[in-house]
Amino acid sequence: MRRSAPDARPWRSFLRDRRGNFAVMTALCVPVAVCLAAVAVDEGSLYTERREVQALADLAAITAAANIETAEDAARTALSDNGLVAADTDDPATADTNPGTPRLRVVRGRYTADPSIAASDRFEPDKTPYNAVEVRLQKRGQLFFGSALMAPPTIAATAIASTSAQAAFSIGTRLLRLDGGMLNAVLGSLLGTTLSLDVMDYNSLISADVDVLSFLDALATELDLTAGSYDDVLDADATVGQIVAALAKVPGTNARNRLTLQSMAAGATNDLSIPLSHLVDLGSLGRLALGQRSPGLPVEASIMSLVSASAALANRAHQVEVDLGATIPGLTSARLAIAIGEPPQSSPWLSVGEIGTVVRTAQTRIRLTASVSIPNPAAGGGVKLLSVTLPLHVEIAHAEARLTDISCAAGRPDRPRVTIAAQPGVATLRLAESPDSGFADFSRPQSFHDATIAEVSLKLLLLNLDLLKVNGQAAVEVANLTPTTLTFDSTEIAAAKTKTVSTRNITQSLPLSLVNNLSLSVSALGLGIDVTALLGTVKPAVTALLTSVTAPVDTLLYNTLAMLGIGIGQADVRVTGATCGRAVLVQ
């Protein structure tokens, strides 16, 4: 029996039937769509969360940089004020007990805004002085739908903020007691010319301030430099004559000072070139183009300070001899020798910088060899004073001033407050003799021995002894091993007020201290005669004569050193401008 083939028409009908397709497609696609929607929601949520975490990290970094001394607490407070309580990244306790706690790490360091340095290398962690803070914030993200399939991801954000608080300050000393004749002799020798200025001329130079950037503008013209920035000018060298000539051309210089400076510049023969970077350090202001100014940070200096600092630099490592003749009351002759060393690390005397910036004076040596006039040679007991000599040596180590803090009251950036730690250089004064060969060599200490302070004659009956020598030496040290903190408020900064750190009362005569400590002995030049008993007669007479000249010698010492920006047991500090800047994101 033959069977017939199955009928395919029902299947064809089924396949051609379109009824219910939408329901089928919906049933197949809805799970996929739901999964995709869940992923999109979670991804969108994580994206928003990442932005929030980065914003919090940015805020914490700015707050920490603005309060860099308490950066960790400031960053944590900024986060908590915005609803996020974070634990320290390095705290193992919270990592074990609550691994989901947000983690915070704050690193202080130094940021250098130099385009030549790769962006990733501009922040140096833990480098002092601090001027920037890096904040790293980690937080576990939130998954709404994917938590059943995967662990929530960790969201991390990093932000670096820097602040640019700066101050302009200088170190030196003032001319306490003006004496035109002495100053003309000393400054003229340093400049290589003859000066005939009077006290009023010096007072005018001392009291006049000049804008340092305007001075550098004029100096660039004087040197015929095609400089683009102030750093380019400071990279150049100039003679002291060119520096003084530029000062005369600064706008605003009054007629008297202009004529005085022009006279100095015309006569200056000291042609040793000075590295201008040893005179002034402008810090970040050095990148300004010539003619530009930084608002809120004036940089000023006394004209006299610029002249004297330049003259000192022009004579570094050289010995300057000044013959004062009989210009000092009580002395029949006086010869002054000056030697100036290089400032440590070539530190400038005026600087614009951040916390940690240091300015220093140069190490200096002075030798005064003077003959004391003897109005009454007879000392009694047959003793006659033939000569009395004052061999005085002064050596002063560098003084320094370090910028330790710049702050502004909340909401008052126009009221900066600057703190300086200042320390005078250790000073040693001696009445003694020293070889000439080592006077200008600062690589080794000087050696000293007894000096012949006086020569006397002794009449014993019919015997005259004319070659008796009174020898001796004395030393006084003035030291301050602990820096003194000076604080300048906004009013004092605006007035460029000078503050002084003193080791001792500078009105006390240091040469007098030497005379009082003088130890003497008498030599009879091998005659075999014991003349020790003469000291009872000779010492009071010699001491009285030396005491009579200590006041003018004191004035000479202070004025000579002040001309070089150096002080015996003291240091003068001025802050002429300061800005707290603003904490800004740099990375």
What does this structure look like?
This protein has 587 residues and is α+β, with helices and mostly antiparallel strands. It has two domains: 137 residues, no CATH class; 416 residues, no CATH class. Helix content is 31%, strand content 30%. Strands 12, 13, 16, 17, 18, 21, 22, 23 and 26 form a nine-stranded antiparallel β-sheet that branches. Strands 1, 2, 3, 4, 5 and 28 form a six-stranded mixed β-sheet that branches. Helix 5 crosses helix 15, helix 7 packs across helix 9 and helix 9 packs antiparallel against helix 10. The longest helix is centred in the first third of the chain and has 46 residues. The termini are far apart. About 1% of the residues have low confidence.
Low-confidence sequence ranges: 92-96
Radius of gyration: 39 Å
Question: Helices and strands: which structural class?
Answer: alpha+beta
Mean pLDDT: 80
In total, the number of domains comes to 2
Work out the number of β strands.
Answer: 28
Helix share bin: 25-40%
